[in-house]
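job 3f2a | input accepted
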Amino acid sequence: MTATAEPSAWTPPPGWPAMSDTEIVAELCVPGARFEMETVDIDGVPTRVWKNAPPSLRVLAEIARGHGERTVSIYEDERVSFSAWYRAVAALAAELQRRGVTKGDRVALAMRNLPEWPVALFAATTIGAICVPLNAWWTGPELAFGLANSGSKALICDAERWARIAPHSAEFPALETVLVSRSEDALDCPAEALEAVIGAPPTWASLPERNIPDVALHPDDPATIFYTSGTTGKPKGALGSHRNLMTNILSTGYTQARAALRRGE
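job 3f2a | predicted structure (265 res):
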């Protein structure tokens, strides 16, 4: 056997930290600053929140739209701009509404990391529906459980996930709409090609320019159901709000700004 050296303790560089946490909060979180905080009532609980976080995914989508022709996603040789992404979101959101999806309905999402994934997430949540992203590694019975347990009214998935789900379709009678992306085979009812609604990613830039349908949203409206892992028994669906997701934007920015100030930058 050969001995290995114990990892040495981290030695702070001279002058570190350049600012204490108390000093950083005093600089970054004061009234009028980007990271100003306030206390709001959430379900009867006084809660400290970022005052300047976008209030909903709908507002975030409008902010993203402003990036225009900058690239939002790259998948193999497919490059999608923010403008094209927004057009696809607006088209899919309108189609979901046309098919009867309303505020509070669940829309399941089961696919690998494809450009269609963020389109589906925003199309559902910006019209007030609750998106239910299901683990793409799940087996057919596990995916069927998530669909049935969430009571999803619509499903947006890729062909690989649909092949696993289809044999269990009798287990989730609440499902009314199934849109499948990238299927090389003919689809049987109730499944339809997602491309028939919004086209393939390279064509999104040619979709009509329109706004996402206008639906009143509150920061604490439910936006997602993510299923937990590491529990006994079946996974548990954890409900998240628009505020939950938008909080991450400011939290990430604050963490980066704090680290820079601690370094003296």
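job 3f2a | The chain has a mean pLDDT of 95.
job 3f2a | closed
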